[in-house]
Design a protein that fits this description.
183 residues; alpha+beta; five-stranded antiparallel β-sheet; four-stranded mixed β-sheet; 4 helices; 9 strands; 29% strand
Length: 183
Amino acid sequence: MSKLLYAILTGFFGAVLLHIIIILGVPHFTGRDAYTRVTAEGTPFVFHPLSAAPDAVGLSNLDPYLRVAVCHFDIARQPLSLIALGGGVDFWSVAIYDRDANEVFSMNDRTSVAGDLDVLVATPVQVAQLRKTPIAALAETILVEHPGMEGYVVLRVLAPQASYEADARAFLADAECMPFTGR
């Protein structure tokens, strides 16, 4: 009797574990994961604004009070520079993800230097090289160690009323997601 009970419990827990693995793995195997969708938006190192309606790859901005743009990158050759001047908007936030959609870093205008976005995303080796030979222009830049080579950035700006719309769109249009050139 105890062997039968043991076999039933083992089978039950094995089936539960198998189903969990399958459910969590489906987006990765179907190409419908976040990174794949963001890369399908277009050119890397460019912020692509999202609209309220889902686009061809299924990405959309679901929050009516935020305007959102995404940018994907590959830092194998050189770090990524994220720059935006926050003077005309009341609130912005940025989140950096790896290719598996794990959040690596996030911040907003309240935790930035002077309300501006100035972040350098680099591999651990690139960060070590930057720290060895400091560049004066990077004195107020936030250095972020990214564990992999590829990822994406989500930039959000608050636009709770129609009067905020022009500033929010201008902020996203002026934001830069580009390879670091050494300033």
